[in-house]
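subagent[fold] <- orchestrator: predict structure for attached chain, return tokens only, no commentary.
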Amino acid sequence: MSRKILLLEPNYKNKYPPMPLMKLATYFRNCGDDVRFFKGDLRDFAAQLLTEELYEKLKNPALARHFEALKRYVRYGRMTLLEDVRELSDDMMAREMAHSYYLRCKRKEYPNFDIVAVTTLFTFYWAKTIDTINLAKRFLAENGRLLVGGIAATILPEHIEAETGIKPIVGLLDRPYMIDEDNAAIIDALPLDYSILEEIDYTYPAHDAYFGYMTRGCIRNCPFCAVKTLEPIYKDYLSIREQIRCTEEYFGAQRNLLLMDNNVFASSHFFDIVDEIKEQGFGQGARYTAPSPYEIAISNLRREHNVRGYLKKLLVLYERIAEKLKEQEAGKFYLAREEAGLLYFPTATREAALTFDAIAHPLYEKYFKRLPRKRTLDFNQGLDARLVTREKMEKLAETAINPLRIAFDHYEAKEVYIRAVRMAAECGIAHLSNYLLYNYDDKPEELYHRMKINVELCDELHVAIYSFPMKYHPIRDPKYFRNRDFVGKHWNRKFIRAVQAVLNATKGKIGRGKSFFEEAFGKDINGYFDILWMPETFIIERMKYKENLTREWRGAFYALTGESKMEARRIIAQNDFSESVVAGAVYEEVREVLRYYMLPKLN
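subagent[fold] -> orchestrator:
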């Protein structure tokens, strides 16, 4: 008997689609289950489900165009939301039924699923994650199962259980019978079901890519890293051939290849891995022509794969077609959709879309041309500079690697890092990137020196290196895993905030260009610390304040000596400039300096 499955990702912003849920979607669909995916406000999703039930009971197709108004009413219960719904104005029974659904929503009596699976990401999304898990219980049928897994669940399972009562799945779904006692499928090895992404409105910044692993785990055991907990066993070769074949067959070829390997250079099969990557279409200079999203949607409707998701996709594509048409043709297209019931999702059916294909398909092909595009390979978690050899770098240069990410977590590793970058440039790899860990056991000046090394290497080697400073966050520490408040022993809150203020202006990255870097972080180490101590408003609005108030602040700040200097720096380091803190300063000259830190940002 088919089960109803709900896959949930908490409502946080994240870059990558939820690979574990995409594999679970494949698993459950292979079992013949009805699978639904949601990411967003769960209360809104509950209203969506209840309104779907309400619409079916009202049996009035004319209400399809008012579906969103009905949904808002079911969630909030305000009659003003139904003022424009003429179909309900004279139907007392229909209004009473709608009110009963509002009351169900208010009481959290939500439609039920046999299995609800919630994925978890980083622990600083803790509050949203816990809220999602606890609210997900409301969607469970009697004797239903709530599955919780993922990164946070694996790192802090006891805390998940303490706050939700749910014992999470720890680690990977890499053993048989982990979900169903009669199913030996290895879920972690299954291909991803990309169709679930068509069900939600959220667009992941990283999309149009194959997502996967060609190795698992890492040979290192860095104290700041959670990989040993998440993937304790190093697996040095996992083929992606079958995953790519399945993806292309059902969801079309993807533009890029994004591999989440934590240390591919450690693999004894590294050269085999590169050969397979090239074989799959990601050799140097690789290009491809994107498949038609219309054809993907209609072909999946034909095989009845995620009808809900692909009907939603087709309605979006119909709108895009309509935007291309001239007025008279657009009118005919609208009427044809109206007659087919394809203007609104509640009236759309698979059969109608398949019939309408004769009209829509030629129009889509006429107005949407697809041109060859450049492909890229990205080992997104970075490569280990300590394991670089000339042979490995030359082999990697045979691929469409862009960017090459090399970790530069410690200033003490500068010689090893510089050697790896030089070797990459000599092998023809001109686009590089790296993560710069800070706020761990490093000193603030070490971050500046690492950034400067990259800027100088750009000029010397004629390459582009984009640096992404990443603030350390102790995700296991009970004091800090719920927030981002940790301050390293050599850092303070003001310095951390100053770095973040600069990065906000540079969109989180530091690129090539000496003058740009010096303007952002200072011409030398003294200029860097000047920016770290500077009022945040002056950092963000640097050009507006450059010639007046910033100069005044510098004069007052650097004039402090002795006890007043120590007091000012102690207060500024805490990055709290409330009236009580400023008024509590002992020295008048310190209070005058602190006034600059209270200035609001300009509009």
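orchestrator: received. Logging for downstream: The chain has 27 helices and twelve strands. The radius of gyration is 28 Å.
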